């Protein structure tokens, strides 16, 4: 009787929150997805009408984003996001781990150094972007540092450079996607083989062979564009990556430091007794135990990098195409161009990108909790 009453009380307490979340989160997501399937904004006369007449166009907005002639900026934005996420993650993880290892050596004044390293995280991206915009001015800041030693000032355009490296043809995207899927399937195959799960081994092997054949065969039947379209890493993103890493590496340091302090001292001493050097202790004992910390940091930082908006807006402005990202383009498309359907399509693509990072992590975490 008491258990039923407690269950009813819990349901009554949670119902208002569930209703609000259902309306203002999932309801708005559903509305955004529906909007992306219409032509809202294609007709200027209907864009800001009180009761616009909308026509269902299916996935044509998504097709235009990935294959349309005028949406080349969106495709470059996806490439910008990929490189930004890659270098942002590497920079934060490497610097954060290095700082955590140094602070874990029982140095004098550890609290002071820890506060200094964590301080940038307390700032908003707007403040960080404003400060780093001053530092990266073409005629001042970082570029004039060589003059302190009598050298010529730098001429690098940190936020406006149009030079690109590591260029590739957008038509080859299916090949790169197939190669990435093949790597993931190979990893799943290896994991299933180690766990001796024959069903998963067979499924992963068959899928891997299919993807490899499809990729090596040149992805038949898929032609994104009828003409070459090159994209690459814009050097103007170097300054933005530096600012983002400066702000978030302290957070990664805090995560790693907590993980290091949670490793029993006996494990390190046992490894040293067995003849392991200091480097081998970190390689074979410490770093493997820090894998959950690394995964959590990658998920959090990846989530931030995919949705990055305010830092780039403050550093380079909204109209600087060389440092554009999908979130910024969504803002411009929706609220300046009044192309609400296409802006909603960009929002849905962003949602899927974030979900691809978050959902597997949540599923793995919930699955491990159920096993416990």
Helix-strand blueprint:
Elements: H1 2-36, H2 44-47, H3 60-67, H4 72-103, H5 110-118, H6 125-135, E1 164-169, H7 173-194, H8 198-216, E2 230-234, H9 237-261, H10 265-273, H11 278-289, H12 291-306, H13 310-316, H14 326-335, H15 340-371
Antiparallel strand pairs: 1-2
Helix pairs in contact: 1-15, 4-9, 4-12, 6-9, 6-13, 7-8, 9-12, 10-11, 12-15, 14-15
Overall morphology: globular
| Biggest sheet features | 2 strands, antiparallel
Q: Name the structural class.
A: mainly alpha
Question: What is the CATH level 1 assignment of the domain at 75-163 and 235-338?
Answer: Mainly Alpha
> Residue share in helices?
55-70%
Uncertain segments? none
The end-to-end span amounts to 28 Å
Task: Let me know the CATH homologous superfamily of the domain at 75-163 and 235-338.
Answer: MetI-like
CATH topology of the domain at 75-163 and 235-338: MetI-like fold
Gyration radius (Cα, Å) is 25 Å
Please state how the strands of the largest beta sheet are arranged side by side.
1-2
Number of helices: 15
CATH hierarchy: architecture of the domain at 75-163 and 235-338: Orthogonal Bundle
Strand content: under 5%
List its traits.
MetI-like fold, single chain, globular, 372 residues, 2 strands, mainly alpha
Description:
This protein is mainly alpha-helical and 372 residues long. Among the domains are: 193 residues, MetI-like fold; 60 residues. It contains 15 helices and 2 strands. Helix 4 packs parallel to helix 9. The model has no long low-confidence stretch (mean pLDDT 86).
């Amino acid at each position: 009787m008491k258990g039923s009453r407690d269950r009813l009380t819990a349901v009554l307490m949670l119902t208002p929150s569930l209703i609000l979340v259902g309306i203002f989160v999932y309801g708005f997501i559903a509305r955004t997805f529906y909007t992306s399937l219409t032509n809202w904004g294609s007709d200027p006369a209907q864009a800001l009408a009180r009761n616009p007449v909308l026509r269902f166009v299916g996935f044509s907005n998504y097709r235009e984003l990935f294959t349309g002639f005028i949406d080349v900026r969106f495709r470059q934005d996806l490439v910008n996001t990929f490189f930004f996420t890659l270098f942002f993650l590497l920079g934060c993880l490497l610097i954060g781990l290095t700082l955590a290892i140094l602070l874990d050596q029982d140095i004098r004044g550890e609290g002071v150094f820890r506060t200094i390293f964590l301080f940038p995280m307390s700032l908003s991206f707007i403040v960080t972007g404003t400060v780093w915009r001053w530092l990266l001015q073409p005629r001042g800041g970082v570029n004039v540092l060589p003059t302190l030693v009598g050298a010529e000032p730098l001429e690098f355009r940190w936020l406006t450079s149009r030079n690109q490296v590591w260029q590739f043809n957008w038509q080859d995207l299916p090949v790169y996607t197939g190669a990435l899927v093949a790597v993931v399937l190979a990893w799943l195959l290896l994991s299933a083989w180690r766990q001796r799960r024959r069903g998963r081994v067979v499924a992963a092997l068959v899928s891997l062979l299919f993807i490899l054949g499809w990729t090596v065969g040149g992805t038949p039947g898929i032609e994104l564009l009828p003409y070459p379209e090159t994209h690459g890493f814009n050097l103007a993103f170097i300054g933005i990556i530096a600012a983002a890493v400066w702000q978030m590496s302290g957070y990664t340091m805090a995560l790693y430091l907590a993980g290091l302090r949670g490793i029993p001292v006996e494990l390190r001493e046992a490894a040293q007794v067995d003849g392991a050097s200091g480097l081998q202790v970190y390689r074979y004992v410490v770093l493997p135990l820090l894998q959950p910390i690394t995964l959590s940091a990658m998920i959090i930082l990846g989530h931030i990098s995919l949705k990055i908006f305010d830092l780039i807006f403050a550093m380079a402005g909204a109209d600087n195409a060389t440092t554009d990202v999908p979130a910024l383009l969504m803002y411009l498309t929706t609220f300046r161009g009044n192309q609400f359907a296409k802006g909603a399509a960009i929002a849905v693509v962003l949602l899927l990108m974030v979900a691809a990072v978050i959902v597997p992590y949540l599923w793995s975490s919930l699955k491990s909790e159920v096993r416990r």
